[in-house]
Amino acid sequence: MDINFTNTTLFIEALHFAAEKHKYQKRKGTNPPPYINHPIKVVRTLWEEGQVRDHEVLVVALLHDTIEDTETLPEELTQRFGQRVCNAVLEVTNDWRIPREQLKQKQIDDAPFKSVVAKQVKLADLICNIRDIQDDPPYRWTKTRRMGYLLWAEEVAAGLKGCNPHLDTYFAQYLKRAKDSIK
Ligand code: ZN
Asked: What's the domain count of the chain?
């Protein structure tokens, strides 16, 4: 199989960069996996289920939590991966200095105005979080809290819909499955 040298180099660079930045972090769950499993799952969801072949979307997916959850500065991303990648990562970065409830509403309100790249990454991110909540919910999350997350995710996803029909379909399926499993 032929590979595009430049794209593959950048993809591997992004994977390595994310692995380094997240190396001391773990996900939530009863038996928490290394954090890097999460961006890998997001990129896999985009590739497999979303059938995304836009290389930039895949690179952004690998890097999507670096600014929000590690010490990574936007300048680092710009320098290594270019301004467009950095801008898209910033689009999916939440500012946790904003009070929690306000931030959740902001994500719902902002969703329709994001770029096509950011929308797809965000939707795949939500799909992965929904799967985690169903398969290995964060420790001490009650049914009410899990359902609350699903209903919120549904509202965010409503604003992200329309740029990747495959992802839209999978989101609806996983959401239904997760809701049914809580009832
Ligand atoms: Zn994420």
From this structure: 1
Can you give the pLDDT of all 183 residues of the chain as single tens digits? 677 889 999 999 999 999 999 999 998 777 788 999 999 999 999 999 999 999 999 999 999 999 999 999 999 999 999 999 999 999 999 998 999 999 999 999 999 999 999 999 999 999 999 998 888 887 788 999 999 999 999 999 999 999 999 999 999 999 999 999 987
Verdict on whether the full-model pTM lies above 0.90:
yes
Distance (angstroms) between ligand 1 centre and the Cα of 1 equals 30
What separation in Å is there between the alpha carbon of 38 and the centre of ligand 1?
A: 7
Name residues with Cβ closer than 5 Å to ligand 1, which is an ion: 65, 125
The residues that are catalytic are 68-69
Q: Who contacts 43 (Cβ-Cβ below 8 Å, separation ≥6)?
A: 58, 61, 62, 124
Give me the domain span that covers residue 121.
5-182
Domain containing residue 20: CATH number: 1.10.3210.10
How many angstroms is it from 6 CA to the middle of ligand 1?
25
